[in-house]
Amino acid sequence: METPEYHITWKTVVMLVVALVILPILPILITGRWDWWQAWAYAAATMISFAASRAVASKKHPGILKERAESLEHKDTKSFDKVAVSLLTLLMLAQQVVAGLDGRYRWSPRLGPAMNIAALVLIILGYAFASWALVENMFFSGTVRIQTERGHSVVSTGPYRLVRHPGYAGSLLSYVAIPLLFDSLWTYIPCALLFIILVVRAALEDRTLRKELPGYEEYTHATRWRLMPGIW
Length: 232
What we know:
Radius of gyration: 18 Å
Number of helices: 9
CATH architecture: Up-down Bundle
CATH topology: Four Helix Bundle (Hemerythrin (Met), subunit A)
Number of domains: 1
Shape: globular
Largest sheet: none
Distance between the termini: 36 Å
Helix content: 55-70%
Oligomer: single chain
Strand content: under 5%
Low-confidence stretches: none
C-alpha cells in the first residue's frame, strides 16, 4: 500500500499548540501558581505521552498521523461521533478550568502527597495503555468511520486481546485519577461527564464495527469486554 504524504498545516500547528501547551498548563495559568507540582506533572505526562506515542506509531504505521489529523474532515465520519468529539473537547477544557478555579479558590480539601502520587501513577498507566493501543492499531483514527481506502481490518493483538476499545479504557482510567492529582473534587463533575460520553461513544462505535467491519463480530466472541474486563 502506498504511504500517503502528510504535510503539516498551520491549522494543525495551532491545534497542537492548544492541545499540548495551553490546555495542559491552563490550571497553572488560572491560579498563577507556578510552583504547583501536580499541575506540572500532569502537563509533562500529557505532553510526553502524546509526543512519544505519535513518534512510535508514525514510524510503525506510516500514514496514521495523516488519518488522525484529517479525521474530522472525512465525509464518512459517523454523525454521532462528530457530536461526541465536540462534547469531549468542551469537557476536557472544562476539566482544566474547574481544576484551575478550584486550585485558586481552594474549594476542595487537600488530599495529601500520597494520594496525589497514586493518582499520577494511574494517569500515567492510563496514558500508557491508550498509547499502546495507538501504536498497535494502524487504523486508530480520531473519529469513528470505516477506513475503506486504507484497507480497514480488525486488530486483535496487543491491548486488543484484553478489551475491544483500549484507547477509551486508558482515557477512562485517567479521568478517575485527574481530580485526585489536582486536589479538586469539583473536577469530578466534568470528568464524570467525560466518562459517560466516552462509554456511550464506545457503545456506538462497537455497534458500528459489528455492522460494518468484516470479522469484527467474530472478534467480539474472542475479546468479550468492551472497556472493563469482567464488567463491560
